[in-house]
Specification:
By secondary structure, the chain is an alpha+beta fold. It has a 5-stranded antiparallel β-sheet with strand order 2-3-1-4-5, with no helix packed on it. It is globular and about 70 Å long. The two termini are 30 Å apart.
Length: 543
């Protein structure tokens, strides 16, 4: 076999540093055309590995056989999809269903609404001789009024949970590069379970808002982040042609979880209280570690490749399969460097952050609006969130399949979905009947289904496979910031105005604006590609 080497300029004497005897023109089999700047040399495998695979400033390319991972686009990949579906079913089912426990937890803390502080007395207490005065009731059962949880405070728990889940994205990218998807996701399940159990164990009788924020919001949030990102990225790298469909099926677990968990948690809380609901969630989170067992590395095949050699090794997406750079902040900043100068990446990330400002408002506020403003019973109002989950699940499957066709413009679909969801959310304050909220839940569920199915697809399409893991991770950081601000702001607007009208208006504006600013994303990408091509051409001319 022979190896062809392409060199910078005509400085052939530098090759002698790594190919002994190159300066001797009588070497048998040596072929070199000075005008072509290429060297063809017959070598054995031993020679290739002992001599040609040395780094040198002017040795840029060589051809060799190498085992590399490839996307099977089916087969075992569908097992990966099922495992990802179940993982998202658990983590998003828990994350997006906490509104079902809000009344029970607020009653347990001593505050049932914003204006009338009436204590929900446990059945084992004798209330006949108790004073109707709220403070006296609190003192009689040894409840500290400092534990009172308003709607704003309660939504901080969910905000911290969802923000942490998304914001740890860059950190998770490095972990998966270093240790692989299976190890990271399994550890995340254990960490999420510990956080849920700790939120109950710190104060098993009276809900402790700070324990919930730090243990459930913070610790479980990190665990869910370690589960979420691997479940999305591994599906993306296992598929090519069927990637949108596979992604749609995987993240349909979110919709299924949102449908199943609210009534389940509500039923458990009625029997065993919020304490039983937290213990149940901890057990389920721990059990989800089994799903990560199926996150096997990509299959390998032997191919001939043209690899670039420079002072730093070419950084391919490794996902724990090959040797990577040392883990740490330096690696994270190095990965962020090229992304921070990309207007395409910045627009994708900023729009994602704005989307998250309004994304979770319906999950947190819709059932409470039906209960308190439309007079619906607790089960009916809670089921509104389940309707979002049903529409979300169906929408992810349908649009995942549709997006596999080449005629589909994923960017237009995604932006259009956010536009429709934003307009629908703006109209929620005008709803006066149950069927109107049901209609909104269906429209919103379908809208966010399209957005979530195509989110990772757009990042991959616009940033490329090599940058996919890092770009997706850092884009989640922006989305996490939006999540942290969105729900508490919506809760504060409700506490300040006495109703959810302004909260839904604000959420609608966020969703609508995030869709509108990305309609020109393709033009920005084309401009950036042209700029980079011009820059590379200029560098080549200088060489």
């Amino acid at each position: 076999m022979s190896v062809e080497i392409e060199m910078e300029g005509h400085q052939t004497h530098r090759v002698s540093k790594i190919i002994p005897g190159f300066e001797d023109p009588t070497i048998e089999g040596l072929q070199y055309r000075r005008g072509s700047r290429k060297l063809s040399l017959p070598v054995s495998n031993e020679f290739k590995h002992s001599h040609l695979l040395q780094e040198d400033d002017d040795l840029r390319n060589f051809v060799q056989e190498e085992l590399i991972p490839y996307a099977p686009d089916g087969g075992y990949g569908w097992v990966i999809v099922l495992a990802s579906f179940l993982s998202n079913f658990v983590l998003d089912g828990i994350s997006l269903s906490q509104s079902a426990l809000m009344e029970d937890i607020r009653k347990g803390s001593g505050l049932v609404n914003d204006t009338n502080a009436t204590m929900a007395i446990p059945p084992y207490l004798d209330v006949e001789n108790m004073s109707s005065n709220y403070t006296a009731i609190l003192q009689s059962i040894n409840i500290d009024p400092d534990y009172n949880i308003t709607i704003t405070l309660y939504n901080i728990i969910s905000a911290v949970l969802l923000c942490t889940t998304l914001s740890v994205g860059p950190f998770i990218s490095l972990l998966t590069d270093r240790f692989g998807f299976r190890a990271v996701s399994s550890c995340g399940s254990v960490l999420a379970a510990v956080g849920l159990f700790s939120a109950w164990a710190v104060s098993p009788t009276i809900p402790n808002i700070w324990a919930m924020i730090t243990s459930f919001g913070g610790l479980s949030g990190i665990g869910f982040g370690m589960m979420f990102q691997p479940s999305i990225v591994i599906v993306g790298i296992y598929f090519e042609k069927w990637r949108p469909l596979a992604t749609g099926i995987a993240i349909a677990g979110t919709g299924a979880g949102t449908f199943a968990f609210p009534p389940l948690l509500l039923g458990i809380s009625k029997i065993w209280g919020w304490q039983g609901a937290y213990i149940f969630q901890a057990i389920v989170a721990l059990f989800s570690a089994l799903f990560a067992i199926f996150y096997c590395p990509l299959p390998m095949r032997r191919v001939k490749i043209n690899s670039k050699i420079s002072d730093n090794h070419l950084r391919r997406p490794s996902f724990g399969l090959v040797e990577v750079e040392p883990f740490g902040l330096k690696s994270m900043l190095k990965a962020l460097g090229p992304l921070s100068t990309s207007p395409t990446f910045l627009l994708i990330s900023i729009s994602g952050g704005i989307t998250m400002l309004g994304f979770f408002a319906p999950y947190s506020f819709l059932s409470d609006k039906g209960l308190k403003e439309l007079g619906l019973d607790e089960e009916t109002s809670t089921f509104l969130v389940s309707i979002i989950g049903i529409a979300n699940t169906i929408g992810r499957l349908i649009f995942g399949l549709i997006s596999c066709h080449p005629w589909v413009n994923c960017l237009i679909f995604s932006n259009g979905a956010l536009t429709v969801a934003g307009i629908a959310t703006l109209l929620v304050p005008f709803a006066t009947a149950h069927y109107q909220l049901v209609l909104y839940a269906i429209i919103f569920g379908f809208g966010i289904a399209i957005f979530t199915v195509l989110r990772s697809i757009l990042v991959l399409e616009f940033m490329g496979m090599e940058k996919f893991n890092d770009a997706f991770g850092f884009s989640l950081l922006f989305m996490g910031i939006g999540t942290l601000l969105g729900n508490p702001l919506g809760g504060w607007l409700k506490d300040s105005t006495g109703n959810y009208n302004i909260s839904f208006f604000a959420a609608g504006v966020y969703l609508l604006f995030s869709g509108l600013i990305c309609y020109r994303l393709q033009y920005i990408k084309d401009w950036e590609s042209g700029r980079n091509s011009h820059s590379h051409s200029a560098q080549d001319r200088t060489l």
